[in-house]
Amino acid sequence: MRIALLMPPKKAILYNRYFPNVGDTISSSYNNDGNDSFSPNINFIQTLIKHQNSLTNNVSNADKNPVIIDELINVTQSDSRRRQFLTRYSPSDETMDTINLNEFMPSTELISENEMYTRECDTDFTFYSKDYYGMIKEDGNDSSGLQSLKVLTENFHIPEKLCIKCSPPGRLVTIPHPTYLNGQFNFNTIDLSSVITILALNLQKNDNMVNMSTFSGTKSVIALQTGLLNRLLCVLRSPSRSTHVQQMINTFKASGIISEENDDEQNNNTKIDIVYSHDDLAAYFSNDIDKDYKFNKILVNVPCSADRYAITSGDSHVFGMGQARLRAQLPKIQLNLLRQAMELCQPNGYVVYSTSTLSPSQNQEIIQSFILNHSNNINFALINLKPLYDLLTACYSKLGIKVIPIHLPLFDNNNNNMSKEDHDTNLSSNNTCHGLLIIPSISCNYGPTFIVKFKRLP
User: Fold this and answer.
1) Helix ranges, 135-241 (H)
2) Phi, psi of 258 (to 5 degrees)
3) Considering the chain, what is the average pLDDT of its residues?
4) Over the range 256-276, which residues count as b (16 or more CB within 10 Å of their CB) and which as e?
5) Known binder of ligand: residue 207?
6) Which domains, and CATH codes, for the chain?
7) Which residues does the annotation say bind S-adenosyl-L-methionine (predicted)?
8) In the 8-state DSSP scheme, what is residue 71?
9) Contact at 8 Å (CB) between 146 and 136?
10) Alpha helix (H) ranges present in 154-292?
11) Average pLDDT of span 385-410
12) Which residues is 180 bridged to in the sheet?
């Protein structure tokens, strides 16, 4: 995995369905399906749809993720007490502050490269421990006061109008430069983990979507290419990115150009706003957005340590010199963004939280902290991502995407005391996947990406 992070990421092709005569370009690429092709030749969306139909029809010939899943089972079933973070912190410490997530940042413990991944507490940092209870602070000394977590299972809709071509695992491909015509590019190179994040939103026709913490605009473009959005709001955390994001979206959105693929009149009327919010996004909504306008799909791609970028870029990352304060503030920023997204989401709407890091302190711990601190004043449930995990696992031999199911042990342990009537909404850990972690590999170098989905309840 470390070697994969140091290598260039693998890219897929997202074809612009609003580009003139894009159908001819796609058709010509379909004719290069031979093994001697050096261009991406696998239709990503059609592959997912095919395997989804097979899973629906109870076809049990799906491929399995190699080694990783078996290793995960062995690790989690171990009776030994296992740590999860590279800090001097004991999971049994009940005096830990439930708000100060900076305790999880390895700012005081120096670990050399030779020591990394040689200690037991480092080798299993991507997995969870069943006896780990996270950030719990009981009023008394009663340790049985864990709340149950409501988990809902829903079917995932694969947007058929997305046209994405990728290559098989382990194959080297060449991607030509995109063609620019009439203000449009014919395709864009993307990471498939970004597509999976959009798939987790489960977009439906006439959805109103907010993309918080927009950086490059790639996920916004993918969402627009589905042809399902009625409105899209991109919220920038940095005003310096506004020009880039605006240009990115303008070259991949419907702009009155008639093409063979542009047969969805509704998408031509998609309203797109790009705003910059420095602090309080809710204040912007109350002042500048129609009061009657509701957003039912919110993507929270939070700022994080960005593992791949941090180890391959220069000094302009969170681990660079002079960035200690930013590193310490990351958990607070992530929690605030998730809280804002949940407050802005309309009842029965959905919020997807995602990062580009493998760090449990920015993934599982943020989710558990949010649930513990906000479940009393915000009514929400977690969405079971097991159907999406099963689909990606079934496509492993074709797509090569390595994905790990994430469980929140804080709530898994409490399912044993569940009442019978809550059995449908609080699923057993065998049938539940609280989140997904897409991990890089040398043969199929996508990610890393962490994904969790919430539903705002009335």
Assistant:
1) 192-201, 218-225
2) -90, 125
3) 73
4) eeebebbebeebeebeeebee
5) no
6) 58-159+191-456 (3.40.50.150)
7) 280
8) H
9) yes
10) 192-201, 218-225, 242-250, 265-268, 281-288
11) 91
12) 185
